[in-house]
């Protein structure tokens, strides 16, 4: 009788290990739900057996656009490019907004005609910065997306011909001199 109880206990302990292992191996997947009226994206976590567990993380549309743009950091520069194989400055902005159902013109000087002009001290994450760079200082030819603002310094993501998709600070001498205007699309 005692042997039977011991065997039963061993059997139950081995079978419980197996089921807990299976539970740990369930893959989790994050999906996004975009509520267009409020510009809020709620992330939900789903487990492989089709159960959905809502998380408490709420991401604004500007934050989601920034997150999408940042996935291109390090991508090489390619004039007219809009993918991970190569990207130019307006392609980066165009694709980041298009992914969120906001269609902008493809060229930076045309993008600068959209949205609302914002004075620099009032910019927020997700606003666009426009520049007149190089030997073409009479026309807007560069655009970046504001990703952070710290200590009155603005960090923006953009694509440069020399370094590809990078983040820079507006207070850098080159960018501050080339800065033309900021615009809010969202």
From TrEMBL:
PROSITE patterns: NLPC_P60 (PS51935), PROKAR_LIPOPROTEIN (PS51257). It comes from Algibacter aquimarinus. InterPro entries: Murein_DD/LD_carboxypeptidase, NLP_P60_dom, Papain-like_cys_pep_sf. The keyword tRNA-binding does not apply. This is NlpC/P60 domain-containing protein. Residues 59-186 form the NlpC/P60 domain. It comes from the Bacteria. Belongs to the peptidase C40 family. PANTHER family: ENDOPEPTIDASE NLPC-RELATED, MUREIN DD-ENDOPEPTIDASE MEPS/MUREIN LD-CARBOXYPEPTIDASE. Pfam families: NLPC_P60. Keywords: Hydrolase, Protease, Signal, Thiol protease.
């Amino acid at each position: 009788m005692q042997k039977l109880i011991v065997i039963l206990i061993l059997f139950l302990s081995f079978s419980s290990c197996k089921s807990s292992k299976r539970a740990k191996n369930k893959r989790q997947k994050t999906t996004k739900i975009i509520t267009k009226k409020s510009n809020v994206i709620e992330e939900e976590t789903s487990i492989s057996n089709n159960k959905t567990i809502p998380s408490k993380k709420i991401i604004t549309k500007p934050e989601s656009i920034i997150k999408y743009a940042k996935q291109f950091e390090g991508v090489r520069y390619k004039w007219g490019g809009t993918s991970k194989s190569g990207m130019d400055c307006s392609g980066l902005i165009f694709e980041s907004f298009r992914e969120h159902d906001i269609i902008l013109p493809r060229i930076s000087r045309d993008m600068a005609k959209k949205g609302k002009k914002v004075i620099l001290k009032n910019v927020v994450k997700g606003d666009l910065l426009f520049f007149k760079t190089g030997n073409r200082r009479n026309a807007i030819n560069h655009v970046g997306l504001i990703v952070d603002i710290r200590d009155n310094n603005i960090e923006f993501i953009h694509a440069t011909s020399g370094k590809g998709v990078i983040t820079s600070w507006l207070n850098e001498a080159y960018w501050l001199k080339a800065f033309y205007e900021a615009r809010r699309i969202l």
